[in-house]
Amino acid sequence: MIAIRNLSMRLVSGGRDVSILDDISLDVPAKQFLAIIGPSGSGKSTLLGLIGGMDTPTSGTISIDGRDITKLSDDELSRLRLQRIGFVFQSFHLIPTLTARENIAVPIELAGDPEADAKAGELLRAIGLESRGHHYPVQLSGGEQQRVAVARAFTHDPALAAHADRIVRLRDGRIASDDLQHRASGARP
């Protein structure tokens, strides 16, 4: 279980205090599939980095299975990451010679689905990039490239989104919403 209490992260930038995370409290039970989403700059990466012991919060605590990781030494944090925490970093690895739509369609096509192009179009709409589908990665912003990479990952395993137990949305360093997902009977044991 992960228990986060009154977590804040502030940095000094340009001589002024900038709040990255502001008083986040959150419990994540064991085996819960939690998605943390929000616009660029909302604090997602900072929150995940803190949970992973990659940085130290300004205030608050993070406990993993009852152990407050904010009090661990660097060596103890390294052992914790080695034994208990895995990361997927924000590298996109889009194919530069393919459009956004084509990048999303590739894994669907490789799975033998004849509806790859249509499904890629649906995913582009879902991520708000329908009008950018004909653009190549170099023509997309970093955030747009990331959304294409996420959409491509969902085409790789379309059941992934359906299995999220809960979605926490961050906005401006705070929890904007925290929603349990209600799936149809039989969707997940």
Name the CATH superfamily assignment of the largest domain: P-loop containing nucleotide triphosphate hydrolases
Rounded radius of gyration (Å): 19 Å
Broad structural category: alpha+beta
Averaged pLDDT, please?
85
Strand order of the largest sheet: 2-1-4-5
Q: Any guess at the CATH architecture of the largest domain?
A: 3-Layer(aba) Sandwich
Number of helices: 5
Unreliable stretches covering 5 or more consecutive residues: 184-189
Q: What is the strand tally?
A: 7
Quick recap:
This protein has 189 residues and is an alpha+beta fold. It has two domains: 2-87, Rossmann fold (3-Layer(aba) Sandwich); 100-161. Helix content is 30%, strand content 26%.
How would you sum up this structure, described in words?
The protein has 189 residues and is of the alpha+beta class. The chain has two domains: 2-87, 3-Layer(aba) Sandwich (Rossmann fold), CATH 3.40.50; 100-161. Helix content is 30%, strand content 26%. It has five helices and seven strands, in the order βββαββααααββ. It has helices at 44-51, 74-84, 100-110, 116-126, 142-156, and strands spanning 2-13, 16-28, 34-37, 59-64, 67-68, 166-171, 174-180. The strands form two sheets. It has a four-stranded antiparallel β-sheet, covered by helices on one side. A three-stranded mixed β-sheet has the order 3-6-7, with no helix packed on it. A hairpin with a 2-residue loop joins strand 1 (2-13) and strand 2 (16-28). Helix 3 packs across helix 4, helix 3 packs parallel to helix 5 and helix 4 packs across helix 5 (142-156). The longest helix is centred in the C-terminal third of the chain and has 15 residues, at 142-156. The radius of gyration is 19 Å and the shape is globular. The two termini are 20 Å apart. The model is unreliable at 184-189 (pLDDT under 50).
